[in-house]
Structure formats: structure tokens, C-alpha cells
């Protein structure tokens, strides 16, 4: 499968990627735990059907020390015993934030309260930004049909 278009070959695409990378770096430099960031990236990418991002973020998570058991159970996190309460709160917020169009009320008060119970204000800001940024990356890659499978951990820096 070949992508429809390479965003890096257009001035507008290059500029958009530059700003998304800056937003991603802001989240990476925050106090939000790296393992939580990876879980959010993977779960949103699964929901959005972004093969490139699922490939990238599972490989990066594994490279960072994430276990295969946890990686295999992300899609079924509600029935898995391997995630902390904080991670569960982040995954719930991720699902509701990713599926905003599916819920007339958007993100529920319960999901927000649960996340706020486990993360401080800076971490919550980073979590919200992470959910928004990965959804933007997913949508760009799905629209241009960027295939997954060839990513190497750390490939993009």
C-alpha cells in the first residue's frame, strides 16, 4: 500500500507537521508519565484506525520498556488487570476525547473527575494536549493513507 500523498513534500504540510511536532514535544517535556503518553497514543490510534501511528507508538513504547502483555491489552483495558487506576482514567478520557462526535455531551463529568483525581493540573493539561495532538496525527495519516509496518523505534528523533 502506498500513501496517497506525502505531507512532507508540501509547504503547508511541512508547516503543519512542524507545529504538531512542537506540540508533541511540549507534552513529552511535561510531567505526564511516559507510559501514560504511550497508552494514550496507542489507544487513540486504535480507535481512529491509524495503522502508521499504532505501529509507531507500540514500537516506541516497547523500546521504552513497555511490556508486550500491556501492549496487547490496551484495546481491552477495561477487562485487563495490568493498568493502574491513573492509567485507566487516562484511557477513559482518551476514548471519550477521541469519540467526541459519538457522544452528544462530549467528555463526561465522571471521566474528567476521575482523571483530575489522578493527575495534577500540569499533567491534566498535558493529557488533554496529548489526546488532541495524537488525534490530529491520526487524522492526517488516515486521510493520506500512510501505511504502518515499516517504522523503526526512534526513527523520527
Automatic annotation (TrEMBL):
It comes from the Bacteria. SUPFAM superfamilies: AhpD-like (SSF69118). Pfam families: CMD. Coiled coil: none annotated. InterPro entries: AhpD-like, AhpD_core, CMD-like. Residues 22-95 form the Carboxymuconolactone decarboxylase-like domain. This is Carboxymuconolactone decarboxylase family protein. It comes from Paractinoplanes globisporus. The lineage of its organism: Bacteria, Bacillati, Actinomycetota, Actinomycetes, Micromonosporales.
